[in-house]
Amino acid sequence: MASHTVFSKGFFRDKGMDYRARVVLGRAAHGGSDVGEVLATLDQISDQESWRTAWSATADRVRRLGDAFRERGDERSAGSAFLRAANYWACVVESLSELDDDAAIRLAFRAHRDCWDAFVDCAGGAHVRVGVPYEDQTLPGYLLRPDASGTRRPTLVITNGSDGAISGLWSSAAAGAVARGWNAFVYDGPGQQSMLFDRQTSFRPDWEAVLTPVIDTLVARDDVDQDKLTGYGISQGGYWLVRALAAEHRLVAAVADPGVVDVSTSWTAPLSSGMRKALDKGDRAAFDRDMKLATMLPSLRRTLAFRSRPYEAEADWFGLYAEIRAYQLTDDLAAKVTTPVFVTDPEDEQFWPGQSRRLATMLGDRAHVAAFTAEEGANMHCQPLARTLTDDRMFAWLNEQLGTVH
What we know:
Order of helices and strands: HHHHHHEEEEEHEHHEHEHHHHHHEHEH
Distance between the termini: 42 Å
Strand order of the largest sheet: 1-4-6-5-7-8-9-10
Number of strands: 10
Shape: globular
Largest sheet: 8 strands, mixed
Strand content: 5-15%
Number of helices: 18
Structural class: alpha/beta
Helix content: 40-55%
């Protein structure tokens, strides 16, 4: 047996910390992190507190490096540093979100978003801010382009997951699009990132109410080819995007990374059989009683508080779980999807196991399933250490749907 087993055994015993380490390391594929910076930081971490301390120090150091490059007029190097710093600050935000410390979360989030905005501003005009009119407010969006020429291009519309940083979308799909001569559009929807931390909005299951205004905004632009719009949804975005496609038919093709049919299963799977029965029967008193006992564990209470924050639900645990159960793609909705969908199916999917195949069954010949394996280094949720391989496969398929070759 090989003596070096960090890939198979992990960086940390804590599975959540180990997965997050893989995510930030995988962002190096497109400049969203640097391998040496990541490994040097991980070397200083033993628990959640040291995770926050180490990533804060790295993020601050790399941000100051970006400032120094910008002062010398080196926008390219500055932008590179700012992007990495944004992702390192995101590591801090995610960890702080599990604590009851709104002030600290807001400070870290502001540092993260300031670095992201600095990355956008260092792109020589290639990347631009594009607000999306949404109900009585505006969603913050960014059109990331190969250059500032304003050339009309195919555009990949990227929908984030439940708690991912917008800077992480660069390495997840946007960089791959831009490298292929496409635009990529990223945005914060209700309950996501700035719309949560700055405006206290909530998620909604009917994401067509979000995606349609996004597409309306893009098709009105001269630098977007309205006949070559595609979509990408990562993590919980794999549910939101496909749900939206039941009503929004202007995307030529879409990618669900991975397929998510029922968001609530990642919440209900850890419950005891008795608690699931109480939930199914609508026994609010029994469910809340058992949840009160379960959340006497501080770590579980903090995790649930963090994960429940973006949902608009009644004050008790039963109301929260009932709300999350509304985030399902039904057979009736799936039947209305006319857009072909590329569905990633990673081995060892830890949050929604089996749902990529379930989605493919629901969509029938509209689905193209792509398996990703541990042998390829492409296992786990959203293939964190195989983003180049993911790009190659999904963009090859998307180009086929558009009838183009790059």
